[in-house]
Design goal:
heterodimer; A: about 270 residues; alpha/beta; Rossmann fold; Hypothetical Protein Yjia, Chain: A,domain 2; 2 domains; 14 strands; about 25% helix; about 30% strand; B: alpha/beta; Urease, subunit C, domain 1; Diaminopimelate Epimerase, Chain A, domain 1; TIM Barrel; 3 domains; nine-stranded parallel β-sheet; eight-stranded mixed β-sheet; about 30% helix; about 20% strand
């Protein structure tokens, strides 16, 4: 069975993690399991809720949200043990957690890492970085990111914020969250709906029909060699190793074997 | 005319009785009725209640107010079933002493002993290994393979942050060179070396980790915990931070065990507070209900929040100039601005709050949160407690005093890590003032001291000894100006600990009407050489009038 990807959504308290996760859940055609510390912050649209039972909320679209408190280990083991594994696991980390550490929990049989997305508040981040109580925490979050989303950019000098983020993390693409379509994360087949990606700003979508890929190793090399501003890339190609799913979120690249038929190239969305 | 005695009335005499009541610090005899103190004073005073039943078995012993531990954990009892491999010799629940492990060779030797008597097929799990104390090659699987090439071996380190396993474990789970996890230690050639870091690494040895967690939560561990406390003269012990409240059946079952007369210790259950405001509102309601229905041997007056890591793990949040030698991995466990929100449901219901603060940035955040809560909701008698409080500044102590707060110092650190604090973690100046008991007295901040068992061995003769002498294993006196008197230390581990648990009306001193909880000692801590306090033998305890003899013959 193909291992289930685990995507970590990190960022300090109030940065906009929940907004992103709600966006992913609204636009998804996957069965997603979301692990959160606390339901207090998640505020799921009531019309989406099928059933709520203590630590678990079932949604009408087949997704599930679980409050895991402090015990991420038990939650991850429960997922790999369950007879029906989700298509995608999202971990919303606490506001002070290092999302890079949360991502290491995905290295067990049945799961794989899917990347670390960190949301940063454009209004607060400079002050947070200078705050002796939380400065090092916020810095570690930025450093751990494969993709940086900047929220609350209205009226802000985004170049300044981007420059500052780059000084801590030179590789991860930086994109204003208003320009990021959450279905890029939660959709099975992102190229089926490229129109959902807002096309203003610098975000653009290309499709590589015949990537120069003949096996798993060359697929990984090819994915990594894409331009540095890749926000998301996804596609299934046929190779000597069978059908391979190529995925990239920011700087995080993964290649996994799959029994799903090829999709006709790889869609690449970049800034 | 004398009052008529009840049939179970008894008077105990002793060489001396130390009451922890400053109004009557010593006595010759104590009369007990229905598990409570009926009279304390001369034998004549006690007999004047009409009691003839004088029990002289403790006539040559020293009786003191039972020791009260305001910060320990039930998992201290795990060494009943998990071999101990820590640096310092440690008492076991059966009264034996497990010798300390001070080298990799000693570890291998101990594990060989354990392994040779184990049934085939069972994994060997041990706990407490602490290489911070010896310069040596990092423990790796090739060392453990000398114990067994076939039996899975899982060595849980004292820090709780990592485990080292042998090759058999790696083979069992198929963990090889190509395993992608960064939570695995590796040799230079990229092959896993057996080190599994943090939960993300340790969960790869899934069965062994699960076995360990199950053992920690077993009834055997709970019973062994009580035996350890009895053997140390502790009559009330706090299990600070547990998650039993999640399973009401377990709470009921444990309460039935604790309420049985043969169970030798009162347990204060302090549920763990976490970052979820919603869940904490529910938890506060649960604790409130449990508190209302508490038995006299299982009580629920407080909760606990953990806010940072440890100093020796470099995960405590400490202010400028930071750590002395080593990378700062300090981190709050919940966002500082969230602290007031998760604590509010407890404060509003008059449930005491003990907050784990090892670093001084952390104690500052907690004190500020309490100030905010007091501004919102008056509770004049809250006694909220900064626990560990190791690096609290004098300004923080003055503010905590003004707010009616308490401290609970982890004074055993002076002995167990004092040399490391001076040379490695915080440097000489701050190490000399770590766990500043005497400064708290000068400022007027009330405090207790604790063991945090199993982090250090249970028992307050050691904490008293550490607070009074402040010596380290290399013979240094760490901060002479922070030493306190024997009398002050005795109060810190009895009545002052009871006070910060909101239980000083029933425990903590031997006064008429309070529960008859007594430590039975072989010597008087006030009379021996202060350096010998920790060596005083404990005969056992009396809890609610019931005599419990130590298993440490």
């Amino acid at each position: 069975m193909t291992p289930t990807p685990v995507i970590v959504v990190g960022g300090y308290l109030g940065a906009g993690k929940t907004t992103l996760i709600n966006g992913i859940l609204r636009g998804t055609d996957l069965r997603i399991t979301v692990l959160v510390n606390d339901f207090g912050s998640i505020n799921i649209d009531a019309s989406l809720i099928r059933n709520s039972n203590g630590d678990t909320i079932e949604l009408t679209n087949g997704c599930v949200c679980c409050a895991v408190g402090d015990d991420l280990t038990a939650a991850m083991l429960a997922i790999v043990d369950s007879p029906v594994r989700p298509d995608l696991v999202l971990i919303e980390t606490s506001g002070v957690a290092d999302p890079g550490i949360a991502s290491t929990y995905a290295h067990i049989d049945g799961l794989r890492t899917g990347g670390v997305v960190v949301v940063v508040d454009a209004l607060q981040v400079e002050g947070q970085l200078q705050n002796p109580l939380i400065g090092s925490t916020v810095r570690r979050q930025i450093e751990a990111a494969d993709l940086l989303l900047v929220s609350k950019t209205e009226g802000r000098d985004t170049d300044r914020v981007t420059g500052m983020l780059r000084s801590f993390n030179a590789d991860a693409p930086v994109i204003p969250s208003v320009e990021f379509d959450p279905s890029l994360i939660g959709s099975a087949n992102s190229q089926s709906r490229p129109a959902r990606t807002p096309q203003h700003g610098a975000v653009h979508t290309t499709r590589v029909e015949h990537p120069a890929v003949h096996d798993g190793a060359s697929a990984l090399v090819w994915l990594r060699a894409l331009e540095p501003g890749v926000v998301r890339a996804k596609g299934i190609v046929t190779t000597e190793n069978g059908n391979l799913l190529l995925e990239r979120i920011g700087t995080h690249c993964s290649v996994t074997t799959t029994d799903i038929p090829p999709t006709g190239g790889v869609v690449v969305i970049s800034v | 005319m004398s009052p008529s005695p009840a049939t179970n009335d008894v008077i105990y005499t002793a060489r001396v009785i130390r009451t922890a009541n400053p109004s009557q610090p010593t006595a010759d005899a104590i009369a007990i009725r229905d598990g409570r103190v009926l009279a304390v004073g001369t034998l004549e005073d006690c007999r004047s209640w009409g009691i003839d039943n004088v029990d002289t078995r403790f006539a040559d012993k020293v009786l003191t107010a039972g020791f009260v531990e305001a910060h320990a954990h039930v998992m201290a009892g795990m060494y009943a079933s998990v071999p101990y491999v820590g640096r310092f010799a440690r008492p076991m629940p059966d009264g034996s002493i497990a010798e300390g492990i001070d080298s990799t060779e000693a570890l291998i030797e101990r594990l060989r002993e354990v392994e040779s008597s184990m049934p085939a097929g069972e994994s060997l799990i041990c706990r407490g290994f602490d290489p911070i104390y010896f310069d040596t090659e990092r423990l790796a699987r090739h060392h453990l393979d000398e114990v067994s090439a076939t039996r899975p071996i899982f060595v849980f380190h004292a820090s709780g942050h990592l485990a080292t396993v042998n090759t058999a474990v790696l083979l069992k789970y198929g963990i090889g060179k190509d395993h992608p996890s960064p939570a695995i230690g590796r040799y230079d050639d990229g092959e896993p070396d057996g080190e599994l870091r943090e939960p993300a690494g340790m969960m790869l040895a899934r069965e062994e980790l699960t076995m360990f967690i199950d053992l920690m939560q077993s009834d055997d561990t709970f019973l062994a915990f009580a035996q350890l406390m009895r053997n140390a003269g502790v009559t009330t012990c706090t299990d600070l931070a547990n998650q039993w409240w999640r399973t009401p059946d377990l709470v009921a079952a444990r309460k039935a065990i604790a309420q049985d007369g043969s169970f030798p210790v009162r347990v204060v259950v302090a549920s763990q507070v976490n970052a979820s405001v919603d869940a904490m509102t529910k938890l506060a309601e649960t604790v409130d209900t449990l508190h209302g229905g508490a038995g006299d041997k299982m009580l629920f007056p407080i909760v606990k929040l953990v806010l940072d890591g440890s100093i020796q793990g470099f995960t405590a949040m400490i202010d400028w100039p930071g750590y002395f030698d080593g990378d700062d991995h300090g981190q709050f466990l919940i966002p500082p601005e969230q602290v007031v929100n998760v604590l509010r449901p407890f404060h509003e219901r008059n449930i005491g709050i003990h907050c784990h603060c090892n670093g001084n940035l952390t104690s500052g955040v907690f004190i500020d949160a309490i100030e905010q809560l007091l501004t919102e909701t008056a509770w004049l008698d809250h006694r909220h407690t900064v626990t560990h409080a190791q690096l609290m500044t004098q300004a923080q102590m003055r503010k905590a005093r003004n707010l009616g707060m308490q401290a609970n110092f982890f004074v055993n650190h002076v002995w167990f890590w004092g040399d490391q604090h001076r040379g490695v973690t915080v440097g000489p100046d701050r190490a000399d003032h770590i766990n500043p008991c005497a400064t708290a007295d000068r400022i007027g901040l009330g405090y207790s001291v604790h063991t945090d068992a199993p982090v250090t061995p249970p028992g307050h003769l050691h904490t008293m000894w550490a607070a009074v002498n402040r010596v380290t294993p290399t013979g240094r006196v760490l901060g002479e100006t922070e030493r306190i008197s024997v009398d002050r230390a005795f109060h810190a581990v009895t009545i002052d600990a009871a006070y910060q648990l909101h239980l000083d009306h029933v425990i903590g001193s031997l006064e008429v009407g309070k529960w008859a909880d007594i430590a039975v000692l072989e010597e008087d801590p006030y009379a021996v050489d202060p350096m010998a306090i920790r060596d005083i033998g404990v005969w056992g305890t009396i809890v609610g009038g019931v005599v419990h003899q130590s298993s440490a013959g």
